[in-house]
Amino acid sequence: MRMIPILLSLALAGAAWAQPAPEKMPAGKGKKAGVKAGKKAPASQAAGGKARAKGKGLKEYKPPVMDPEPALEPSKAAVVEGKGDGVGVYARPWYPSPRIGTLWSHARSKVRGQIASRTGERICVKAFWYGIEPFGYVCSSHVQPTKAAPSTVAGFNLKAGERLPYRYGMVKKGAKANQYGSVEDIDGNNIQRTLSGADSIAITGSIEHNSTKYHRTADGMLVEAEHIVWMGGGSTWQGVHLKPDEKLPFAWTRNDRAPVRAEPASKAKIVDKLALRTRVELLGEVGEGKQRFWKIGEGRFVAAADLAVVRKIAPPDGVLTSPEKQWIDVDLGEQAMVLYEHTVPVYATLVSTGRSIKTPRGNYPIWARVLAHTMKNQAYEDGQYHMARVPWTVFFQTHNAIHGCYWHNAYGSPRSHGCVNTAPLDARYVFDWVRPKLPPGWFGIRPANLLESVTVHVRNSHLDPPFVQERFIGPPDKEIEQKRRDWADKRRAEKAAKEAARTPAPAGPPAP
Questions:
Q1: Neighbours of 103 (CB within 10 A)
Q2: φ, ψ dihedrals at 459, nearest 5°
Q3: I want to staple 455 with a disulfide (CB 3.0 to 4.6 A). Which of 13, 93, 113, 319 is the partner?
C-alpha cells in the first residue's frame, strides 16, 4: 500500500475511514438494545447516561512513561528545514519515544537547542537531535539548517471562498482507471492500483505522455485522465456557533419538503413544507413511537422522524480529560454533533455516521489529527475503495474519524462506513478548534498521552441504554489487526475451497 509517510506514521498500517467488524468476529462487549416502539429512552440516558472509562473485556490503554524534558545545548542553527516528506517529531530525543507529529515536506522550524543521541539509538543513529518550536524533537539527519524564516502557515493555505484543499476527481461510473507511480511505470505497464467507479483522486496537475493525458495526484501518482470526472467544491452546509444564552434543544429538518401538520398526527392536514436542514425552534414534544411530533408553532407540528434534534447534555463521566476541558458529543440517533468547552456548548452541526458499519458508541480520546488522509480498504475487507486525501481527519477510535467529506451532502442521515462524516467547513472548524493547535509547518499531530486528549463521546439517544463502551481507545492495535487479516485469509480460503468443490471436473476423452 503506497502512502505518504505522515499517513503511515500517524495511522499505522494505513487507516481506512472505518473500523469494520468482520462477520462473527467480536468487536467488543455491549450489544445495542433497541428502544421498543413508542418508548423513548429515559431522559437521563438520552442525556448520555453514566459513562464508563473502560468497557468490560476491552483492552486497557496505558500511557507511555517518559523522562522529564532534557536540558538542551545551544545550537548554531536557528532554523531547520525538513529534507523531504514525513519528518517525524518526537516527544523526547531518544528511543523509545512517542511520535507526536509530522512536518510538511520541507517545512521550516525554529530551533530551541540541540542534544546528542543516546547510545543504542534506533531513530537518530550517528546524529543528534534538535529541539524545535513550539515543542518536540527532530533528528538532525532528517533536517538541515537554513537561513530562511520559519514556516508561518498552520494547515492549508486556502483562498477566500474555497471549501476544499484539493481539486477532487472520481472514476466514472462503470469505468476503471489505472494508477501508476511514475512515467517509467506507465512505459513498463507497472500498474500500482486500478481504481473503479466511486474511487477518488486529489489532483494537483496533469501531464501528457505518449499522446495520453494523466492526472498527477497529491500522493505522487499518475492516473489515466479519460476515466475521471470532477467532483465540485464540496457541500456549502455549515453548522452554527452557539451563543452562551442559546436556547436548546432546537432542530434541523432531515428531509427536503418536510411536512408541517396542523395537528400532531400523521394524517393531519399539511399546512407547510420545510426545506432540507431548515432550523426550527422546539416548543414541546407530544405522542409516542411513529406518532411522536414536535410543536414548532401554533398549529404547526413536525414528525420527530423528520427532525435532527440538538440537545445540551451535562458532561458525562470520563470526558473532561483535556487541559482545556474540551469534548465532543456525537448523537448517532439524531445525527448531530455538539462541541463543548466544559459545560458550555459552543458549536453544533449535522453529521453522517455509520450505515452498513455502525459507528461505535463509547468515550474515545482523539489519538491523531491529520490535515489530509488517503483512505483505503483494509486487507481484511472484501470491498475495495480509495478516497483520496480526505481533509481535516480527526481520529478518535482506531480507523474511525471525524473528517471532511467531499463525495456526498447527506448530513443529517447515516451514510458513512463507520466514521463521522462532516461537511468541509465543519471539518475544518473542528480540526482547528481542538487543542493543542497544529503548529505552523506541521501536517499531523498526536498526543503523547491519550488520557489528556480531547474526548469524543459517542452515544445513541434512540437506544436503551444510549451509551456503552463498545470499543477500546486509541490507534489500531497491531495484534488485533493481524488477527483480522488471518481470519479474513482463512474465510476466503474456505470460500474458495467450497467453490472449487462445487465446480465439476472437466470431462475426460470418450471411451474407445
A1: 31
A2: -140, 175
A3: 319
